[in-house]
Amino acid sequence: MIEKCKALYKQYEEIIVYLIVGFLTTVVSWAAKFIANALLFHNTMYPTPFENTVLSTVNWVTGVIFAFFTNRRFVFKSREPMRKEAPKFVLSRVATWILDIVVMQILTAAGINLVAASVISAVLVVIANYIFSKLFVFRKKRPD
């Protein structure tokens, strides 16, 4: 049983570690988002479009900083120079930041509260971030 679990972990290690790092990134970025909401907007559960944009930006900046270093080190185990990967990482995260803003605007305008909308948006963003990171940012070089 333990050997089977080890084999499954080895087979799916990258995805398992990505989900763990993604969960931690979500916790860190949401903490920043909800702290900003408390400090700036007095814990509104139905933010205006402007407030949504501010909160999504705080969420995004915190998440990008945390995610770059953890994904690079623990998920994709990259050895490439950071100066090559960081711009691609930030660019891919800009795309998912826009996705987050659009999803949050649509869902909160539809009357869905901030917490539920954040969960739905996070699922979509995590999937998109993995695809971008795997295919665009931390691509493994093929042996020549």
Labels describing this entry:
globular, single chain, 5 helices, 144 residues, mainly alpha
Tell me what the structure shows:
The chain is mainly α. Helix content is 82%, strand content 0%. The chain is built from five helices and no strands. It has helices spanning 2-11, 13-41, 49-75, 82-109, 114-137. 26% of the residues are buried.
| Oligomeric composition of the shown chains | single chain
Structural class: mainly alpha
Quote the distance from N terminus to C terminus. 38 Å
Total beta strands:
0
Shape estimate: globular
The proportion of residues forming helix, as a percent range, comes to over 70%
Instruction: Indicate the proportion of strand residues.
Output: under 5%
Q: Give the tally of structural domains.
A: 1
Mean pLDDT: 90
Radius of gyration: 17 Å
Ranges where pLDDT stays below 50 over 5 or more residues in a row are none
Q: What is the count of DSSP helices, taking H or I runs of 4+ residues?
A: 5
Task: Please outline the major beta sheet.
Answer: none
The H/E string reads HHHHH
Secondary-structure map with pairings?
Elements: H1 2-11, H2 13-41, H3 49-75, H4 82-109, H5 114-137
Provide a concise account of the structure shown:
82% of the residues lie in helices and 0% in strands.
